[in-house]
Amino acid sequence: MLSTSLERQIGLDDLHDMRQYVNDTLLAHGLDEELTASLVLVVDEWLTNIITHGYTGEFGEVKISISFDPRDVHICIQDSGVAFDISSTTTAEKEMSVSGSAEGGLGLTLIRRLVSSITYTRLESGWNNTCFHKSLD
What we know:
Layout: E1 2-10, H1 15-28, H2 33-54, E2 60-69, E3 72-79, H3 91-99, H4 106-114, E4 117-122, E5 128-135
Antiparallel strand pairs: 1-2, 2-3, 3-5, 4-5
Helix pairs in contact: 1-2, 2-4
């Protein structure tokens, strides 16, 4: 399995650089432009949530790991912000967000639609580890 990672302090002004890193990495490993664009959007939405909610708009440390095997790509993002398990929101909350009846949540719905699966772990170090898996089949 091939893998690469990046670790750095980021704020909202750094999202472009992070998107570019993910874009360049995915294209360099042979993913097509459409799939690359959708995964870059997933990373952008997740990093925006981390900065806005996990770090309350301040700078914070993140680690992005991207790994590839012949049939899958995995993007794991670690942060030390407030714990948030994306799978912990209920279906009703998701539907309310999509219908516009409640504020927020559209980015989470979009993320769920663009990936094959999502896993979340709160590490012993206190960091969040959220992994997005996309099947290449």
